[in-house]
């Protein structure tokens, strides 16, 4: 028998789901690359004796009913808290590859310092979960990088401000470098994030070409985003990836400056084009 290992939490891998790459702005070029990298990151942290609670949406789709093969490639014993996209559970072989399947769970987790915390587990956010007044912690997934996730944070903040104690964390893999995390990591990250400082906000004014504003607005509506929310999402992704989260050429960046009305952008663009023309002319 293997010795008792660590307890990990994660959710919303969406193995086999190509569209989730665009939906989450995941840093993968294809669904095959995403699946392999998720498996690599999982196994780099999780050992054979560890226990992993997946809070829903583990596998979106698998080819040739091979979901059980994918599960068997993942280290640890896996307990799935069912999500809304876990259709693979209809396959008995895949379901049996898991250590357990539940709709909800209420467990106790021992931290590295020996303290014990009660954790309420579900795929969905629960504002006033069982034990919230008695220091229980709620872990969930489901909401990805959406306005729903922002609403959940606001709801939890309002409840705490009104004296309705709660401590809620989204364990979606997109929030945790696409890998499972321990409760120690979750609580440590929250402490480092909050510190002793209050969040401050900056009011920023942008100049945007009116035609561009209207055209992008129609596209954003399809995703339930306002212009402001889209800009905020872009900023968050830039920080998370440490780079502009899209592939831009020099010409694209100059065009963006021009559309924003930045001074000298047009002159810079013309100079850049002239330089490229001169460079090309010298090769004839």
Work out the helix count: 10
Overall geometry comes to globular
- DSSP E strands, number: 9
Radius of gyration: 23 Å
Separation of the first and last Cα atoms: 74 Å
Oligomer: single chain
The main β sheet shows up as: 5 strands, mixed
- The topology string of helices and strands comes to EHHEHEHEEEEHEEHHHHH
Spans of 5+ residues with little confidence (pLDDT < 50)? 269-284
Class from secondary-structure proportions = alpha/beta
How helix-rich are the residues, as a percent range? 40-55%
Report on the architecture of this protein.
There is one protein chain. The strands form 2 sheets. This protein has a 5-stranded mixed beta sheet with strand order 4-3-2-1-9. A 4-stranded mixed beta sheet has the order 5-6-7-8, covered by helices on one side. It is built from 10 helices and 9 strands. The chain has helices at 19-24, 31-45, 67-73, 92-96, 147-161, 183-194, 210-222, 227-241, 250-259, 265-281, and strands spanning 7-10, 51-54, 77-81, 100-102, 105-110, 116-121, 137-140, 168-170, 181-182. The chain has 284 residues and is an alpha/beta fold. The model is unreliable at 269-284 (pLDDT under 50).
Explain the layout of strands and helices.
Layout: E1 7-10, H1 19-24, H2 31-45, E2 51-54, H3 67-73, E3 77-81, H4 92-96, E4 100-102, E5 105-110, E6 116-121, E7 137-140, H5 147-161, E8 168-170, E9 181-182, H6 183-194, H7 210-222, H8 227-241, H9 250-259, H10 265-281
Parallel strand pairs: 1-2, 2-3, 3-4, 6-7, 7-8
Antiparallel strand pairs: 1-9, 5-6
Helix pairs in contact: 9-10
């Amino acid at each position: 028998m293997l010795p008792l290992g660590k307890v990990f939490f994660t959710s919303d891998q969406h193995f086999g789901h190509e569209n989730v790459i665009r939906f989450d702005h995941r840093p993968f070029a294809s669904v095959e690359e995403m699946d392999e990298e998720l498996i690599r990151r999982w196994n780099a942290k999780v050992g054979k004796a560890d226990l992993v609670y997946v809070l829903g949406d583990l596998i979106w789709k698998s080819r040739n009913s091979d979901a059980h093969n994918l599960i068997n490639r993942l280290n640890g014993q896996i307990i799935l808290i069912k999500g809304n996209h876990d259709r693979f559970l209809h396959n008995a072989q895949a379901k049996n590859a898991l250590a357990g399947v539940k709709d909800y769970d209420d467990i106790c987790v021992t931290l590295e310092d020996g303290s014990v915390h009660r954790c309420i587990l579900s795929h969905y956010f629960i504002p006033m979960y069982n034990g919230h007044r008695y220091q229980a912690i709620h872990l969930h997934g489901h909401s990805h990088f959406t306005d729903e996730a922002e609403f959940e944070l606001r709801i939890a903040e309002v409840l705490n401000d009104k004296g309705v104690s709660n401590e809620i964390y989204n364990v979606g893999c997109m929030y945790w470098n696409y890998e499972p995390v321990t409760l120690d990591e979750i609580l440590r990250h929250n402490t480092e994030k909050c510190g002793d400082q209050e969040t401050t906000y900056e009011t920023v004014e942008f100049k945007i070409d009116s035609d561009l504003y209207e055209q992008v607005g129609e596209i954003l509506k399809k995703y339930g985003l306002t212009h402001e929310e889209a800009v905020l999402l872009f900023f968050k992704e830039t920080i998370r990836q440490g780079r502009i989260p899209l592939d831009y050429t020099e010409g694209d960046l100059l065009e963006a400056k021009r559309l924003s009305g930045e001074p000298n952008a047009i002159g810079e663009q013309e100079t850049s084009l002239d330089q490229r023309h001169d460079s090309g002319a010298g090769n004839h």
